[in-house]
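#struct-pred
JK: can someone run the complex with EPU? inputs below
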Amino acid sequence: MRTSFNVDLSGMNTFRMKVKCRCLVEYDSVDELREVVADPSLPRPLFPIGGGSNLLFTKDFPGTILRCGMKKIQRLSPDRVHADAGVVFDDLCAWCADNNLWGPENLSYIPGEVGASAVQNIGAYGMEACELIESVECVDTRDASVITIPKSECEYAYRDSRFKHDWKWRYIVTGVIFRVSQTPSPVLDYGHVREAVKERFGTDDPAELTPAMIRETVTSIRKTKLPEVEEFGSAGSFFRNPCVSKYFYTKVSETAQNESLGAVPHFDLEDGTVKIPAAWLIDKCGWKGKSHGGAAVFQKQPLVIVNQTGKASPDDVVALAKAIQDSVNERFGIDLNREVEYV
Ligand code: EPU
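RT: done, structure tokens with the ligand placed:
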């Protein structure tokens, strides 16, 4: 275990915000984490971060940042894999593809670690982490006990779980058990995935595809649409895609028609609501490429705010995000909710 004080966090958040934390603890086992949790001398709150890829530090952090140094992946049975919270999620995708196991291939190249994937229910290209999760192992911060929580208790929803609400300060995720499969089960029906697979490999026949082929395709799609963290700091999608009632969707469509904006892209959800891409709403409000201080709306995917100059301050990002929310609300009457957490 390594404990340090007044640590610069700019290398530990993908937005590259230059902030400090009062204390940083990097632990290498569940027992070490239990010691940390039981140690009253460490500044509170205790805040676990994974890759720091879904948050914006808005100021110096007064408590203790926890980082998980456990990085093992283990096959428990033919269709179950255990990954430590500190495993880079894309390394899990690569490991499954290398072992010809179906499961997380559509989630390839999403930044962040396994622990955060279970909190955030990461998703992409027609797949969500919760579809693969069997159970989540945690340390309870109340009494330093360990607990395995079945997926059914986690209340998973679109980019959401109990770990973001009533369990937020209670449980620290230490590992996740995922269900995988040796039977070909490609998920191809989101956006251009099927076309892209066919173009690359000349087939979309599940019997001829491998998880590695889907992984390669998804990775290449993501690379064309989303900024590379090495080039521009960002936290991926800044906003969630709003879900509205069917009635409200027709109102948005009328606004779009009156303003010659074309058809409003949308996805009908099982619960009867309609998901509208926030990227479309932001695009139609004219935000692509616009900047505020060092922060800017990414040209190729306006759902992403980037640290364009490398010197953006938290206030630049907050002000730009607020201006986007205000303009989408004014034009379409829709409140955009953030996916990125402000710390
Ligand atoms: N669009 C525009 N203008 C643009 C770009 C997109 O109008 O410049 C519209 C298009 O209609 C497009 C639609 O937005 O069809 C949706 O775009 P896309 O499918 O690329 O993805 P998204 O809905 O914007 C979500 C996730 C991404 C994930 C992709 C792919 C959220 C908030 N974001 O984005 O997740 O990679 O689907 O599955 O649900 C992330 O969480 O960091 C992330 C990148």
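RT: quick notes.
The chain has a mean pLDDT of 97.
Residues 124-125, 190-191, 225-226, 236-237, 240-241, 265, 277, 279-280, 283, 301-303, 339 surround EPU (CB under 6 Å).
JK: thanks, will look after standup
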